[in-house]
Amino acid sequence: VTYRFPEGFWWGSATSATQTEGATHRDGKGKNIWDHWYEVEPSRFFQGVGPQDTSQFYERYKEDIQLMKEVGHNSFRFSISWSRLIPDGRGEVNPKGVEFYNNVIDELLGQGIEPFVNLFHFDMPMELQKIGGWANREVVDAYEAYAKTCFERFGDRVKKWFTHNEPIVPVEGGYLYDFHYPNEVDFEKAIQVGYHTVLSSAKAIRAYKQLNQGGKIGIILNLTPSYPRSNHPADLKAAKIADAFFNRSFLDPSVKGEFPEELVQILKEEGFMPIIEEEDLEIIRQHTVDLLGVNYYQPRRVKAKETLPNPDAPFMPERYFDHYAMPGRKMNVHRGWEIYEKGIYDILINLKEHYGNIECFISENGMGVEGEEKFRDENGVIHDDYRIEFIQDHLKWVHRAIQEGSNVKGYHLWTFMDNWSWANAYKNRYGLVSVNLDKNGERTIKKSGKWYKTLSENNGF
Ligand code: BGP
């Protein structure tokens, strides 16, 4: 073993409810925005495949958790579907929903796998979206009540909670760049949505602490280190502003309890400050996270703005910078994302130096690949050596950050088994375990899954 990780390192993976459960209309589940969007606009979805056709985790969780054991997991993150637990988003709790999540939690614990539970992974209940979703402050209260319900029902056994996964994505997708419902372009709303999400997280943390259940609560952020094209002051400034918009907007309030000055300045100048109520900022200041999950896929490369914006165009963060495709960069061509392994190290060192070395872990990192079936051998095993290499290349940098004092406690891959994606349905496969859609979702452990087991057993590679 060349790269040995600290004792008790968390090895596992992550999934989300909408991407794995299926059974979207069963056992009293209410509709969320994905169920609704698929119903009204199926052509929006890659090859017309929607959230009801996912990996059947709802029925097959026992088999799947057994497989988690077989690929060496000591921890696993999933999300609770708000609309399965509370079909209308507020009000009545669905007993079948409670039963399902109880079963999953107990099964995990029975296999010696620690459940990491996320409360919100892009799946707003439709009844709440109808009143504006995160743009409406009432939804913050509904979310707080939902979070409390989860702590009360499951908190005796769940000791790692997360308030949100990638909270900036619903802002970007739903209100700026048109890839999530309600697919509007409205910067003012985007800011209000983002602000309410931050507030909801602080309120959930407050509710959790009041219950004194003795676990930890955090948030999961997709951090995209912002690299300037050059050391020219204009490029440096552009990268700094992009960082404030896309990373620090959630990172600073979550960890430090305050919003980044650079961002507040711009919002004030441009006239986009959200509506803030008196007690809010104190709640945000006091209720920061215990633990930070870092999702890392790609960096953000930025250069100074080279064109004048059209004054008629709606306001976008890109008024302050341009994106820049570095020549010679390494790409995952299936997803169109740059692969830059050192980014994971830069994030961890930044957390160490500027965020009090907060306890953290890599909560997602992974490689989506199209057409993996062609790598299946006669025994049914998919030979995904590129995935093993991808994980190793990133882990080397995580290891180096640990040597330099980073407080990183684990690594979770995206994802455990092939699942449905918002953007690509089942085109790109990310799993350690394959799901064969032609054979009613038959599971087989990939080569990477077998390797992951040795990684976890040796606590390194
Ligand atoms: C993250 C999300 C996941 C997952 C992953 C892969 O942003 O938290 O839900 O989907 O990205 O991305 P994609 O499925 O779009 O390729």
UniProtKB/TrEMBL annotation:
Database matches in Gene3D superfamilies: Glycosidases
InterPro entries, alphabetized: GH, Glyco_hydro_1, Glyco_hydro_1_AS
Membrane-traversing stretches: none
GO CC term (a single one): cytosol
Molecular function per GO: beta-glucosidase activity
Annotated catalytic residues: 364
Keyword terms of this UniProt record: Glycosidase, Hydrolase
GO terms (BP aspect): carbohydrate catabolic process
Pfam families: Glyco_hydro_1
Coiled-coil zones: none
Domain of life: Bacteria
Family label: Belongs to the glycosyl hydrolase 1 family.
Name this polypeptide is given: Beta-glucosidase
Organism of derivation: Halalkalibacterium halodurans (strain ATCC BAA-125 / DSM 18197 / FERM 7344 / JCM 9153 / C-125) (Bacillus halodurans)
